[in-house]
From TrEMBL:
This is Thioredoxin peroxidase. The lineage of its organism: Bacteria, Pseudomonadati, Bacteroidota, Flavobacteriia, Flavobacteriales. Belongs to the peroxiredoxin family. AhpC/Prx1 subfamily. The keyword Ribonucleoprotein does not apply. It comes from Owenweeksia hongkongensis (strain DSM 17368 / CIP 108786 / JCM 12287 / NRRL B-23963 / UST20020801). Gene3D superfamilies: Glutaredoxin.
Amino acid sequence: MAVLVGKKAPQFTAAAVVNGEEIVDDFSLEQFAGKKYVVLFFYPKDFTFVCPTELHAFQSKLEEFRSLDVEVVAVSTDTEQSHWGWLQLTKDQGGIQGVTYPLVADTNKTISANYDVLAGSYYYDENDELKAEGEMIAYRGLFLIDKDQVVRHQLVNDLPLGRNVDEALRIVKALQFTEEKGEVCPANWDEGKSGMSATHDGVASYLSQN
């Protein structure tokens, strides 16, 4: 598993559905450089069970993310046509109608591979024939990318394990707290709690208050 934290986020240009309806051929993270934070999350498949709960959960918090200068972007290995079709179905039908953040189509699997969240892998057998082990779909990866396009946080769940969107918001707020205050966030930090100065006196002051 590659650790991308502290490194430049792998770039890509790919087809995507934006605003819940429009297919574009050249979606890229570069448009957010110097302007926005990005929460980039991967999910395994369209038209499944856990995935729509996550996509709706991110949509329900979208305005809060955007109030923090964060763009939410989703990626799976399905096609842009599959994304668009799924968007036409209501929540009651198992669809994701109402999701407005971009859904990127990683149909050639390179985005998932570059972020090291591709569940399957290719290999050549003894007859030099190309084989696949596992499905070529993405694990539930999540990456927080700052305005300099550097990965500051990553989390990867196995396929059955849905993510906590409130935790994604918390980690965004923690990053912005450290950038604004110049302090670090201790265990279980949450919005409104004290940070710690990265000095002996700062640690002692925090401990005396908690």
